[in-house]
Amino acid sequence: MLVLGIETSCDETAVGIVEDRFTLQANVIASQVELHAPYGGVVPEVAARAHLDQMLPTVETALAHAGARIGDIDAVAVTSGPGLMGALLVGVSAAKGIALAHDIPLVGVNHLRAHVEASQLEHGELEPPLVALVVSGGHTSIVVMEPDGGFRQLGSTIDDAAGEAFDKIARFIGLDFPGGPEIDRLARGGDPEAYAFPRALMDASYDMSLSGLKTAVIRELRRMEAAGVEPDLADVAASFQEAIVDVQVLKTLRAAADEGLDQVVLAGGVAANSRLRERFTQECDVNGQRLIIPSVPLCTDNGAMVAASGSNLLAAGVTSELCLAADPNLALAG
Ligand code: KG4
Ligand code: ZN
User: Fold this and answer.
1) What distance in angstroms lies between residue 181's CA and the mean position of ligand 1's atoms?
2) What is the Å distance from ligand 2's center to 299 Cα?
């Protein structure tokens, strides 16, 4: 069974094709990075317009990569939320059009669940219960995936998402958008202990706070500038990144221990971060926990994860009506 997945929740027009739930046949992304770069962030109206331009060519490229025709597709899955309303609507409308024209099922998919389920394309079926850290540009939460596939939230950021913090600090120090990968690169040549940036909310809760860290970095850079001291930006990037990673690792692994779970999944764009991957790998190794992380192209937004998640819903007999609505605030747990 071939499922086509459409992802337009933010700034990537992405289409993936998955066969029989686990086999990746195509994963095509039309990136809008260059369109948004001059603004230093995603401009919702620009994103929606670009999705309209890129939608059908991206579907065609994905079909070509899979060696398939549209008539071979058995179902169409689409991110229905969370995300930017105008951007989501383009994907949802396109998916409805394909479902209606080809008389195939439509499946609305939760973007955050799709990030978690992306791992099945490389690591096989998830075997919950497990703990997942979902870290992206818009979300940062620690959740339990229950044996029935449902999610229970343990904690989340009370202010900035991790990706948002990466992007804001990158912008402040003059790096290109999106800033996460740029900080990751810059930090490789820096000392993670050069600056003692704060780790907030290191109490028993699973909630996180990253805006104080962001302010501390900015204040330190301003202080150095006022004192005529040239900052070593690689050291700043490495120390900032280490502070974020410390909090994510500590809270996620404490959640796993408290819940008595020995499987940990990392999901979302920030799971592409090399230091986050390295630290989780080291710590899970020591603890004897099974760590599941998708490869980098399956961490950042993509259509294959939507096709995979949609395939799971179809296998469970779940489809959506053609009146499927885009929901910018769709929750993962609840
Ligand atoms: O999941 P995603 O592609 O889109 C959303 O659903 O938000 O995540 C995008 C976020 C951006 O903030 C981006 O800077 C961050 O993921 N990101 C990274 C890295 N690659 C992407 N952050 C840190 N290190 C990276 N290597
Ligand atoms: Zn995402």
Assistant:
1) 7
2) 8
Domain annotation for the chain: domains and CATH numbers:
2-117+302-315 (3.30.420.40), 126-294 (3.30.420.40)
Number of H helices, E strands in the chain: 12, 10
User: Which residues of the chain are modeled with pLDDT < 70?
Assistant: 334
Ligand 1 atom with the smallest distance to the CA of 167 is 14
pLDDT of the residue at 334: 66
Structure tokens at 320: 């959506």
Gap between the Cα atoms of 33 and 27, Å rounded: 18
**Ligand with the closest atom to the CA of 139:** 1
Cα of 198 to ligand 1 centre, how many Å?
A: 22
Closest atom of ligand 1 to 83 CA is 6
d(CA 334, CA 109): 15
Say which amino acid occupies 327. Answer: D
Query: Residues enclosing ligand 1, CB less than 6 A?
Result: 10, 136-138, 163, 166-167, 178-181, 184, 268-270, 272-273, 300-301
Tell me, letter by letter, the H, E, C secondary structure of 108-154.
Answer: EEEHHHHHHHCCHHHHCCCCCCEEEEEECCCCEEEEEECCCCCEEEE
Instruction: Output the residue whose Cα is nearest ligand 1's atom 7.
Output: 137
End-to-end Cα distance, the chain: 30
Alpha-carbon distance of 211 to 144, in angstroms, equals 25
pLDDT score at 333: 84
Amino acid 40: pLDDT = 86
Model pLDDT for residues 66-113, shown as the tens digit of each residue: 999 999 999 999 999 999 999 999 999 999 999 999 999 999 999 999
Sign of torsion, CA 137 322 30 273?
A: positive
Q: How far, in Å, CA of 325 to CA of 5, rounded? A: 16
